[in-house]
Amino acid sequence: MSRLFGSVRARATLGATLVVAVALVAAGAAVLLSLRSNLIGEAGTQAERSARAVASELAAGTPYDKLSGLDGDDGPVQVLDEDGRLVAASEDLERISGTDSTQVKPRPAASPDGDDRGDRDDGDDSGSTGESLEPGEISGESVFSNGSATIDGDAEDYRFAAVEVETPDRGSLEVHAGWPLAAEHGAVRTALTVMLIGFPLLLAVVAGVTWLVTRRALRPVEGIRREMAAITRSEDLARRVPEPDTHDEIARLASTTNETLAALETSVERQRRFVADASHELRSPIASLRTQLEVAAAHPELLDLDGAVEDTVRLQRLAADLLLLARLDAGERPADARVDLAALAREEAEGRAGVSVEAEPVEVAGSRGQLGRVLANLLDNAERHARSAVTVGVRREGGLAVVAVADDGDGVPEADRERIFERFVRLDAARSRDDGGAGLGLAIARDVAVRHGGTLTAGRGPAGGALFELRLPLVERVRGARADRADAPRSA
User: Fold this and answer.
1) What is the DSSP letter of 491?
2) pTM
3) Which of 279, 304, 329 is the C-terminal boundary of a domain?
4) Nearby residues of 270 by Cβ (< 8 Å), 6 or more positions away
5) Looking at 56-151, which runs of residues are DSSP E strands?
6) Tens-digit pLDDT profile for residues 222-281
7) CA–CA separation, 103 vs 118, rounded Å?
8) pLDDT in tens, 264-289
9) Domain containing residue 196
10) Considering the domain boundaries, does residue 244 fall inside one?
């Protein structure tokens, strides 16, 4: 059962059925109440018409035994005098309730002890309108009530109407006339029966249609699920989920899933290349160092100590680069220290031949060590390719700090200005590994720039060589943005 209602289709069907059921019950109750009210109102109108017909005859002086409404064909009729005595009643009336008197046989003369009023409650004026009438006048108001009566053995429920009439010779009289409620009861029972039969059938239709519609609507989702399960089992990230041609939320879900798979495939492929390239780059210094150590073990006099140290340093630098890239890939957040880029540029340029610095003080927020690594990598790259001079400029540009490193070398071809930021990429295939490094410097520099909320781009310098521009948000702008985020209300 829990598995069944764990299905979106089952929950949607149940929810739709419950909503329709509640709506049908509410609508059915309203219809029944409206139908009953209308039919009772119609019965009351008929009862009032009968009462007024009898009252008109009484106002005209018609004797009690000549009243036309006492035949009992339309319903029970009672005529009460001002003392509540029954002076006229329908023929064959055996029992009555719901009027001002339960008497069924007329008693024109009052008994000596006044017991004839025993059937009327003292002080009960429910059938009286309280109007002051002239002789021959009929009250314009009627009083309605529900009750029952038995005529010639037939018991029914009635709607009663009470009307007052002032007669010239018999004083004030009160006429009670009833109209049967059998039609109202029959109509309500019929409507209720139709609802009890029709509503379950309608709910079954709603449930069936909802089940089929949701099944059809969710069929692409099941296709996406099956394909994702197959991709998980096969670990083949080149596969894609089917995209339905419906242009709805499910189609957008499929499209987003494929985009995620593509990004994941790219990331995994990049990681594989990274591991392969890292393994290749590590193999060379390790193999060289091992060879030198094996030669030294066999022939100590042939030990190349400088070469061993150089390979060790190279291996250490490569391990440090790989460790930094791993930390950046893991999403390590930079420190929140204030860093003066002008001072940092002069510090990194110190001791480098042919490097000149023109800088104005600008401060950014971040890790001094990582930003120093960016400048060092850019300067190392510029020195390797410059003919004679490297220039470093630090300036403000709007809300950004800009660090420009330019050389007078051959520059970077426009087609390669993005590729050089990929890991283990070296454009000069003829360059030795010892001179060119592992191809991680620019990749590290861009990753650090992005982690600090900035950018690193390559272009053409004033002297025709390469120009690298590092743009970072100023410290005031960074802290203002963080303060705005801290002051913003959090969603529940």
Assistant:
1) P
2) 0.51
3) 329
4) 423
5) 77-81, 86-89, 93-97, 143-151
6) 888 888 899 888 888 888 888 888 788 888 888 898 999 898 888 788 777 777 777 777
7) 10
8) 888 788 777 777 777 777 777 788 77
9) 1-108+127-234
10) no
